[in-house]
């Protein structure tokens, strides 16, 4: 399994798990909330934070645009809602500056080609491709043209669709992340053994993007070989927003990163050895081997 470099970090077998805190749109269009989430990720020891970038006029289906929705800004159309939570140049310049001051890497999931062009102006060290884009060939090709490392989520996708996307992106600069696109996702639908399936199928590193409630199953993903972990984060799971309930609060995020480091240390290298710490116990508990006398 090949490794992949993102910034000053290597990902793959033998390297520490790369932990991404997915802020997404959990900032609800408020830059102060975004900064608080960056703070939480930095305090927890995450490697990076991720936002979502869309051009609403391109991403919102025509038939959905004028549907009404109750929001913190009142009863407004779905298109108006999408526009209100979308950060623009001023906010992303502030995010870029703030992350630099915190020593935090940041990137975004771009849902359309102009959004890739926009985020590219900030020279992110890598891009995350959302599960929704697995079959969007022009968008995949635009991502590949950046020349940056790419992380592909695979929710709501068949193996044939995943293979086709990987063919477009190439494996030499790619991480494939197992995911199930339900928010929150039922435990019975996490299907973590897919991490093993993807490890057999592709030569690139394999990760996990989780949307479940709780932490234990994400740790199991690490045990199955995920070298990249992504979880949505929020200041409060009761906040308004479609992704909040499937997110991890700051305290949980700190525990998650701590537990990941414990699990990866405990996994070892698979080579059986007798440790120095075992020798006194061995001396005390093992009975001497007595060879039977050779018959005369």
Overview of the molecule:
The protein is an alpha/beta fold. It has a single domain (4-265), classed as Alpha-Beta Barrel (TIM Barrel), CATH 3.20.20. Helices cover 36% and strands 19% of the residues. The protein is built from 11 helices and 12 strands. The chain has helices at residues 31-44, 56-59, 78-84, 89-102, 113-120, 137-145, 159-169, 194-201, 216-223, 250-267, 279-285; strands at 4-6, 9-11, 18-24, 48-53, 68-71, 74-77, 105-110, 127-129, 150-153, 174-179, 206-210, 228-232. The protein has an 8-stranded parallel β-sheet. β3, α1 (31-44) and β4 (48-53) form a beta-alpha-beta unit. The longest helix is centred in the last third of the chain and has 18 residues, at 250-267. The model has no long low-confidence stretch (mean pLDDT 96).
- Give the strand order of the largest sheet, numbering strands 1, 2, ... along the chain: 7-4-3-12-11-10-9-8
Quick one: overall form?
A: elongated
Number of domains: 1
Under CATH, the homologous superfamily reads Aldolase class I
Helix vs. strand class: alpha/beta
- Overall average residue pLDDT: 96
Question: What is the number of strand segments?
Answer: 12
CATH architecture: Alpha-Beta Barrel
Just give the CATH class.
Alpha Beta
Q: What are the segments in which pLDDT stays under 50 over at least 5 consecutive residues? A: none
Instruction: Summarize the amount of helix as a percent range.
Output: 25-40%
* Count of helical stretches: 11
User: In the CATH scheme, what's the topology name?
Assistant: TIM Barrel
What is the string of SSEs from the N terminus onward?
EEEHEHEEHHEHEHEHEHEHEHH
Beta-strand fraction estimate: 15-25%
Radius of gyration: 22 Å
- First-to-last CA distance: 57 Å
Largest sheet: 8 strands, parallel
């Amino acid at each position: 399994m090949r490794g992949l470099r993102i910034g000053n970090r290597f990902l793959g077998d033998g390297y520490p798990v790369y932990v991404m805190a997915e802020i997404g749109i959990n900032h609800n269009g408020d830059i102060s909330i975004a900064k608080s989430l960056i703070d939480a990720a930095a305090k927890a020891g995450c490697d990076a934070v991720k936002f979502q970038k869309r051009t609403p006029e391109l991403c919102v289906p025509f038939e959905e645009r004028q549907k009404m929705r109750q929001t913190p800004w009142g009863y407004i159309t779905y298109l108006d809602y999408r526009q209100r939570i979308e950060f623009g140049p001023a906010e992303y310049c502030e995010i870029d500056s703030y992350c630099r001051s915190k020593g935090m890497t940041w990137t975004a999931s771009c849902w359309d080609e102009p959004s890739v062009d926009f985020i590219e102006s900030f020279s992110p060290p890598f891009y995350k491709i959302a599960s929704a884009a697995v079959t969007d060939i022009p968008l995949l090709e635009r991502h590949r043209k950046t020349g940056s490392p790419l992380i592909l989520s695979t929710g709501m996708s068949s193996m044939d669709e995943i293979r086709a996307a990987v063919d477009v992106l190439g494996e030499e600069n790619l991480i494939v992340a197992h995911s199930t696109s339900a928010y929150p996702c039922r435990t019975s639908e996490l299907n973590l053994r897919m991490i093993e399936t993807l490890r057999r199928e592709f030569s690139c590193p394999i990760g996990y993007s989780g949307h479940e409630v709780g932490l234990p199953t994400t740790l199991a993903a690490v045990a199955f070989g995920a070298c990249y972990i992504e979880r949505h984060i929020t200041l409060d799971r009761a906040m308004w927003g479609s992704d909040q309930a499937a997110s991890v609060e700051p305290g949980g995020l700190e525990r998650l990163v701590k537990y990941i480091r414990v699990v990866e240390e405990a996994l070892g290298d698979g080579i059986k050895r007798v440790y120095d710490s075992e020798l006194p116990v061995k001396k005390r508990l093992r009975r001497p081997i007595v060879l039977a006398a050779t018959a005369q």
